[in-house]
Structures are given as structure tokens and as C-alpha cells.
Write a structure and sequence with these properties.
Elements lengths: L1 E4 L29 E6 L2 E5 L5 H8 L6 E3 L5 H4 L6 H7 L3 E5 L1 H10 L15 E5 L6 E3 L2 E10 L2 E8 L2 E4 L7 H4 L7 E5 L12 H11 L3 E5 L8 H5 L6 E3 L14
Parallel strand pairs: 3-4, 4-5, 5-6, 10-11, 11-12, 12-13
Antiparallel strand pairs: 1-2, 2-3, 7-8, 8-9, 9-10
Length: 257
């Protein structure tokens, strides 16, 4: 899998900011909005299509997009959906999108031209699928388990796919979700900054989740400029925990360890 973007809703650098992180020349401190691509069995799934989606696809040189999974309906996770259009043409098929009922409803409103009436030539060709927390579904023959987490008071979907758990935009993990987080090879988790935040895990809280889950490896994402310089923060982390960065590629088993 590949991290397409690892930044928070504003990205890094932040417009108008002259802090040390935003002025950094380290490419690991340049963060597009959060998204990942999962490559398996010659298929490409994307989780979230934020405003930077087009550039992320170009950076990753993705030749296909076969499905899109959405964590929630905030614009920094959905605004780039229109840019799947070239793949409709190249692949000559509709692209399935998956999200909970509220997310699918919001997408249908914001991209109404892709769903209402006879399609205008060139609009995205999408097939919406509503999914429910803790109800697994099969995608290209692989089981995907949506997991409920909370982004302050907003329900958000995390996903477990084989040995991978992906959680972003979360500040609370319900008890019913914890049992599905254990025996995991890779845990990807949001960690916004060092100071506490009302709707996101901060660094200490994210490390506490890692300590409880005990994955083989953990990567933090959805990182703001307030986290600090990548190279400095990494020095403080346990050996099996890393800050993710845009373009990072990792291998994850499809099987539970």
C-alpha cells in the first residue's frame, strides 16, 4: 500500500504560515490531505479522495482505480472524487464507492450531477454502496470490515483488511471496536499534533492506542504542522512506530498474523 497523503485538512505547508515545519525542505514535511492506495491482486483501492486526489494519483502513477472507500463525508476526504472520471474512460466501467449511509447521501448531494437523471457526458460513473459498521463485505473477493470510531461526536468508519487496520479522523474508539484491532500486522492511526485536540488523537493518545493494540508496526497519519519536524518527532518514537509521509510504501499481509 502507498500513503497518498498524510496531512490534516489544511495540508502542510499551511497557507500563509512561516513556521519551521512549513518552511522545511525535507520532503517528509510536505503533506497532502490524508488518503491511501491499497494495491492487491492487480486491483487498486483508494481510501478517501480529498482535494489533492488528482495530484496524488499523478505522484503515485496509479494506472487504475477499482474502488473507493470513504471514512466520512468531510470535504478533506471527499472533495477530489470527480477526478476518478479518467478511470471510468480508461477502464470502461463504473467505479464502486463505499461509505456509511450519511456519507453516501452527502456525496450524492455534492456530486449530484453524477447521480441525477441522464448522465451528462464526462461526469463520473459511480456505483454507490452503503455499508454498516461491523458488517463485513466482500470487495474483489477480499473481506473488508468497517469499524466504528468517533471524530468528536461524528461517526467515522475505520477499516480492517486482513492484517491492516486503518483509522483516521478519530478521537475515540468505542469498546465494540477494540476486539477487532488486536492481532494486527500494521496499524495506521491519526495523530494530529503533540497537544490534545477535541476531535483527533494527539501524539500521546495515539501512542496509548498502539500500546494497547500492540501491532507489529504502527504508522501515524493525518499530521499537522503543529506536530513538529518529521526527523525530530521520529527520534522520540518506539522502534515499531513511525510517522508516515507522502509516498511511503509498505507491504501488509492479507491474512491475519
Amino acid at each position: 500500500m502507498r500513503f497518498l497523503g498524510t496531512g490534516t485538512s489544511q495540508g502542510v505547508p499551511v497557507l500563509g504560515c512561516s513556521c519551521t515545519v512549513c518552511r522545511s525542505l525535507d520532503p517528509r514535511d510536505k503533506r497532502l490531505r490524508t488518503s491511501i492506495a491499497i494495491l492487491l491482486q492487480e486491483k487498486v483501492w483508494v481510501i478517501d479522495t480529498g482535494p489533492d486526489f488528482r495530484q496524488q494519483v499523478l505522484n503515485a502513477r496509479l494506472a487504475t482505480v477499482d474502488a473507493v472507500l470513504f471514512t466520512h463525508a468531510h470535504k478533506d476526504h471527499t472533495a477530489g472524487l470527480d477526478d476518478v472520471r479518467p478511470f471510468n474512460y480508461l477502464q470502461n466501467k463504473r467505479i464502486p464507492i463505499y461509505g456509511d449511509a450519511a456519507t453516501i447521501q452527502q456525496i450524492k448531494m455534492e456530486f449530484a450531477y453524477a447521480f441525477d437523471g441522464p448522465p451528462y457526458p464526462g461526469v463520473p460513473q459511480l456505483t454507490p454502496w452503503e455499508i454498516e459498521p461491523l458488517v463485513p463485505f466482500s470487495l474483489h473477493g477480499i473481506e473488508v470490515l468497517p469499524l466504528p470510531v468517533l471524530h468528536y461526536k461524528l461517526p467515522v468508519l475505520a477499516f480492517r483488511i486482513g492484517g491492516l487496520v486503518y483509522i483516521t479522523d478519530a478521537s475515540f474508539i468505542p469498546e465494540e471496536t477494540w476486539e477487532y484491532l488486536y492481532d494486527v500486522e500494521v496499524l495506521i492511526l491519526n495523530a494530529l499534533r503533540k497537544e490534545p485536540h477535541i476531535s483527533h488523537f494527539h501524539l500521546e493518545a495515539a501512542l496509548a492506542v498502539v500500546e494497547r493494540v500492540r501491532p507489529r508496526r504502527a504508522y501515524f497519519t493525518h499530521i499537522s504542522h503543529l506536530m513538529g519536524l518529521h526527523r525530530e518527532v521520529e527520534k522520540t518514537l518506539p522502534s515499531h512506530v513511525r510517522l508516515a509521509y507522502d509516498g511511503l510504501e509498505i507491504e501488509v499481509s492479507q491474512r491475519v498474523p
